[in-house]
Amino acid sequence: MVFRPETAKPLRELAEILLRSAHTLSPAERELIATFVSARNDCRYCQTVHGYTAAQYLDEDEALVEAVKRNPREAEISDKLKALLAIAEKVQISGKSVTPTEIEAARNCGATDLEIHDTVLIAAAFCMYNRYVDGLAAWTPEEQHIYKDMANRVVTVGYTPPGWEIPFSATEKETKSK
Predict the structure, then answer these.
(1) Which end of the chain is less enclosed by CB atoms within 10 A, N or C?
(2) In the predicted model, is pLDDT for residue 27 greater than 70?
(3) Which of 131, 78, 66 is nearest to 123 (CA)?
(4) Residue-wise DSSP of 116-170
C-alpha cells in the first residue's frame, strides 16, 4: 500500500465502507467474514490482523475467532452469521459456487439482501486483498503484538485515518531517487 498510495486510497476506502460503515451487521461480524475468507485463502497477514480486529470488537474473544476460522458451523455465533459464512465460503472458491440454496438458507435465518450482498462483496474483496498481499510477498511480521497494534488502530481510527496518505506516487519516488 505504501508503494502505490494512489491505489491504496480506494482499497482502504473500500475496506472502511465494507467493514466499518453503518450497517445491520456489526463490525465484528464483518471482520469475522474477512478473517474467515483470509484463513481459507491461507493469507497469514490478513487473517491475523482482521482476526485480532474482530476479537477486539468481541471483547477480546480470540477463541471465538479461532473457532470461526476452524469451522463456523460449530462456532458459537448466530445462525444468520453461519449462513452468511457459508456464502462467503462458496465465494472464496468461486462466485459461481454460490447457489440459490445458500441464499435461501441465509434469508431463512433472517439475512437481508443487503447483508447477503455485502457478505459476497467482503468475501470477493478479501480474495483480492489476500492475493495482493501474498502476490507481492508483503512483509508479514512474526510478532503477534504488531498485529494487535494494527487491529487497535483499525478499531479506534479506521482504515482511512487522517494523515495515512503518502505525499507522492511510486512513479514520483522513482524519479526523486534518480
Answers:
(1) C
(2) yes
(3) 131
(4) HHHHHHHHHHHHHHHHHHHHTT----S-HHHHHHHHHHHHHH-SS-TT-S-SS-H
Amino acid (one-letter) located at 5:
P
Name the residue with cell 439482501: 113
pLDDT at 121: 98
CB 127 within 8 A of CB 39: no
The whole-model pTM stands at 0.90
Give the distance from CA 33 to its chain's centroid. 6
Report the distance separating Cα 28 and Cα 47, nearest Å.
Answer: 14
Cell 474467515 -> residue: 36
Question: What are the start-end ranges of the H helices in 3-112?
Answer: 5-20, 27-40, 44-57, 62-70, 79-93, 100-108
State how far the Cα of 21 lies from the Cα of 25, in Å rounded to an integer.
Answer: 10
Cell output for 25: 451487521
Cell output for 38: 483470509
* Closest among 24, 30, 3 to 159, alpha carbons compared: 30
Q: Which residue has the higher pLDDT, 59 or 166?
A: 59
Please tell me the distance from the alpha carbon of residue 114 to that of residue 97, in angstroms, as a whole number: 19
Question: Rounded to whole angstroms, how far apart are CA atoms 77 and 84?
Answer: 11
